[in-house]
Amino acid sequence: MKFSEQWLREWVSPQLGAQALADQITMAGLEVDAVEPVAAVFNGVVVAEVVGKEPHPDADKLNVCQVDDGSGEPVQVVCGASNVAVGQKVPFARVGAVLPGDFQIKKAALRGVESRGMICSASELGLEEETSPGILELPLDAPAGEDFRAWMGLDDHTIEVDLTPNRGDCLSLKGLAREVGVLNRLPVMSPDVTPVAPVHDETFPVRIEDVERCPRYIGRLIKGVDVTAVTPLWMVERLRRSGVRSIDPVVDITNYVMLELGQPLHAFDRANLHGAVIVRLAREGERLVLLDGQEITLNANTLVIADERGPLAMAGVMGGEGSGVSEATRDIFLESAFFSSLAIAGQARSYGLHTDASHRFERGVDPQLTVDAVERATALLLQITGGEPGPLVEAASQAHLPGEREVTLRAARLEQALCKRLPAGDVTEILERLGMGVETGEAGWQVRVPSWRFDIAIEEDLIEEVARIHGYNLLPARRPAARLALRPDHEARTPLGRLRRQMVARGYQEAVTYSFVAPELQRALLPDAVSPRLANPISSDLSVMRASLFPGLVRALEHNLNRQQTRVRLFEAGLVFRGDLDDLQQTPMLGALVCGSREPEGWAGGREQVDFFDLKGDLESLTAMGGEAEAWRFEPGEHPSLHPGQSARILYRGEAVGWIGALHPGVRATLGLKADALLFEVRQDALTRGVLPAFAPLSRYPEVRRDLAFLLEEDQSVQTLLDCVRSQAGQWLEELRLFDVYQGKGVTEGHKSVALGLTWQHPSRTLNDEEINQLVDAIVAESHQHLGAELRG
């Protein structure tokens, strides 16, 4: 909501500047979005009277005017405005004046006629954004020679407040003034609202059919109004500074009262009303042309104001074009009603509408305002447009109007919430200044909530009111008192976060896929898998819980390949679901998928495709983080998703914990994948398990290295050879490294050459050749006896 600082200060005027006032309002919970001047900077402009007007001798569209600017002598000025006339009071820029945009007025000759100044339009003074069609006409009682800026009160500010939905009581000058008065302990001077005595007895009948949505409706018939009257400049300016455009005096007055008191009003043309005004729900299919020209088809749950012939307006939202006030209007029916906030909020949004009236009704309007608003608007109408008022007509259901509310505020709870004990008298004063009725007791206060505070219903609401009026900045800042024990860090475990970071460091990106997959995809990868089927899936292709991470990763691969991403490296950590609901196992797993080239494309990178051992190396970098890499084994196995001969079962401490291998060609063909892919999946509990790190002193003595090449049958696993070698290598073996596997020339067909590097180091002495030779002989003998391995010459 926008409001004029000067207008607010007519209600309550604290000894604060504009910015300090805005800061105070913000600190009270009503956030100020902007503080802006109401007019651009200009000077040298005075109020003047046009005392003479003659046509320009050499220009048809120009006039030579004589202007009394209060200096004692008429001033000649050439004016091109079509609406300039003798007797007008106008803003006049003297020679030397500076207008907005740093435009300086100088003595000039226009078509040979001297001009000493300029009669100004509203846009030339920065009062309107759009170019004005003519000069700005001032009231006839404007004093000639008076400084225009001071007379108009343009040294003012527009303050824009961004109110939260619960503070609908502040959507008016009255509400904001009430808040400022409370904050500064100042009285609020509201305008006098005196009931207007009726001049005639004629009324217009009113009937409410939906009392739940509209508990109160008040109307008044005013005859003989002059809609062509001019809205006073002071009212036009207040509307402008509040962001509302002047239209005609009737509409301007209803808007003005809405801004002043917070009660939306509407005026109907009496000539277009038939029978009675009826507040009812719309009938399905009824149509209404709104004031903005939009034609809508009404829903059956829309509250409307109607007469005997049909709808006249959307209640609390916008009037209809057919019953609106026009220049031909002579009698008006003035409406002031209380509508339920839920009824208006629902119907306005359903039509994509949001008006000043609906904005207020959605947040709650004081039900006690209806009479005051219509009396205030009547007085202004009689003052500006004339007319003869009739008596008020009221239809109401007291049972459906908001009743009086009482809320208990406990002193102990207030102190606990604020971390501060406030004197009981201060609390009582704050609540009473907010307009609440207060009864003080031993344990606290019994508070009667005023009709305009829809947002106060429970004790916490009262605590908030006391806190913000007392001042949030005056409340102590205290840290919570709690025993914050350090959580134990299991050094023998590898956190999942470290595993994730390791995968990212090796060039992978984490994928997060659905926990439910397409049944046909899961059957293609895991034909024997049993997992729960969803009773109410979001779609048919996401209807079973995943029994493995493979389906989600493969679907992600397909998505990337379809978008020309040929190098894909993904990993995922998540649950898999195996078994029926009665015996469901939910297992955290870590899976990965690679596809494409080994290295990113680049001038220094090769074009080799990723293979089984690349993926196995990435997995071994994870298993090594637990500190017991020797506890992991890879043994040949068959998995329905993986290529026979290029797949392995993963064992940890002898227990099967996962699979690794290339995607099965048959599965690739079924899924329509055009690229090879390799995958692994391992239980998280195995990867995060490990041994406690322990320090071992570094040996100062030299290492001894021997390289041995064994000939093995090609179907013999290298792991069995490594286990055999390690069993005979003794306790001082520091490292056993496989550095070559060779088949070809020089190696018997059906065999392979496996080259191992063995490194020994003693912690307290130098190992001699004799000891090493004995260990080598034992290794060779054991390998030959159990594996048939021969030492390659």
Automatic annotation (TrEMBL):
EC nos: 6.1.1.20
Keywords: Aminoacyl-tRNA synthetase, ATP-binding, Cytoplasm, Ligase, Magnesium, Metal-binding, Nucleotide-binding, Protein biosynthesis, RNA-binding, tRNA-binding
Subunit structure: Tetramer of two alpha and two beta subunits.
Protein name: Phenylalanine--tRNA ligase beta subunit
Catalytic activity reported: tRNA(Phe) + L-phenylalanine + ATP = L-phenylalanyl-tRNA(Phe) + AMP + diphosphate + H(+)
Family: Belongs to the phenylalanyl-tRNA synthetase beta subunit family. Type 1 subfamily.
Cellular component terms per the entry's GO annotation: phenylalanine-tRNA ligase complex
Keyword RNA-binding carried by entry: yes
GO biological process, one term: phenylalanyl-tRNA aminoacylation
Localization annotation: Cytoplasm
Species whose genome carries this gene: Billgrantia endophytica
